[in-house]
Specification:
Blueprint (H helix, E strand, L loop, with lengths): L3 E9 L2 E6 L2 E7 L8 E4 L15 E4 L3 E4 L4 E4 L22 H15 L16 H6 L3 H10 L2 H11 L9 H20 L3 H16 L4 H11 L5 H10 L5 H12 L6 H14 L7
Parallel strand pairs: 3-4
Antiparallel strand pairs: 1-2, 1-5, 2-3, 5-6, 6-7
Helix pairs in contact: 1-9, 1-10, 3-4, 4-6, 5-6, 5-7, 5-8, 5-10, 6-7, 8-9, 9-10
């Protein structure tokens, strides 16, 4: 695509996020799965031990990513490209046992729930301050996707985004999972992919304006129908005849996200697939 420059936005032991003119680029260790706009690199030590610091210049080329200040370079010349767009989700359908498959996802949510996440929205767990804020906003979210009305989508995104703590709040993870579930369900139903993107772009654009910069990047990617490799596999497994054990294993990988929030993302997927297809109407 050419050469671009940016700056280091955040540094974690297993992830470095770089803010660039073409979006938020992630350098991830193999503790993560591949995600949109990222590269996964083998590393024998934590990325925080390479003297990478926030604000350092990042140079992007077709064959490498460089952080000159600490002489850190990622060689991309032999990397393999993966399509993580839901437009490439093929051969999915609505299985007759969809309700059972969703119960397996629900079980993973229950097992991996935290006291301050949004899992109480779909489980019997005691509500918390964040789930109490989001719960009354869900009807508008469901209506936005059912009606595909731009104004309702923007209102739902703006009202829900940013609820929670950290650089990627719980509600934003939920919205990402919800948009992914909606996109996959639409693929199974044979809906127009462009029409799907019209809806998710409206919601994600409004949501991105009401949260952190890093979380906004994830929301905008989700609005373009892009998901992580594990989430892509989960959606393919739940909307197929894949075994329950394979489905559960994939859900558990998402629940164990290194930065947390996996249960929130699964909650979003569960809500989209169950409510929008009226497996469990509300």
């Amino acid at each position: 695509m050419g050469n671009y420059a940016g700056t280091v936005y955040a540094v974690y032991p297993d992830a470095v996020y770089c803010d660039t003119s073409i979006g938020m680029i992630a350098i991830l260790t193999n503790a993560h799965c591949l995600s949109p706009f990222s590269t996964v690199v083998p590393s024998t030590k934590a990325l925080t031990r390479y003297d990478i610091a926030e604000g350092q210049q990042v140079l992007l080329g077709s064959e490498r990513i460089e952080i000159p200040a600490c002489e850190f370079t990622v060689d991309l010349s032999q990397s393999t490209d993966y399509d993580l767009s839901l437009s490439s989700l093929k051969a999915v359908f609505l299985p007759t046992d969809l309700d059972i498959r969703l119960r397996h996802i629900l079980r993973v949510i229950e097992t991996n729930a935290k006291e301050d996440d949004l899992s109480p929205l779909v489980t019997d767990a005691k509500p918390n301050a964040y789930s109490n804020v989001v719960k009354p906003l869900l009807p508008e979210l469901h209506a936005a996707f059912r009606e595909q009305d731009p104004e309702t989508c923007r209102a739902a995104g703006a009202s829900i985004a940013g609820v929670g703590v950290g650089l990627i709040p719980s509600a934003d993870r939920l919205l990402c999972g919800y948009m992914a579930g909606y996109g996959a369900l639409s693929a199974a139903l044979g809906r127009s992919y462009n029409r799907v993107l019209e809806t998710t772009r409206e919601l994600s654009g409004a949501a991105a304006a009401h949260t952190t910069e890093l979380s906004a990047a994830f929301l905008l990617q989700s609005g373009e129908g892009m998901v992580s490799e594990d989430l892509f596999q989960l959606l393919r497994n739940v909307l197929s005849d894949a075994s329950y054990s394979v489905l559960t294993a994939t859900a558990n990988r998402i629940a164990a996200l290194p930065l947390g929030g996996g249960a929130d993302m699964l909650t979003g997927v569960y809500l989209a697939l169950s409510v929008l297809y009226a497996v469990h109407p509300v």
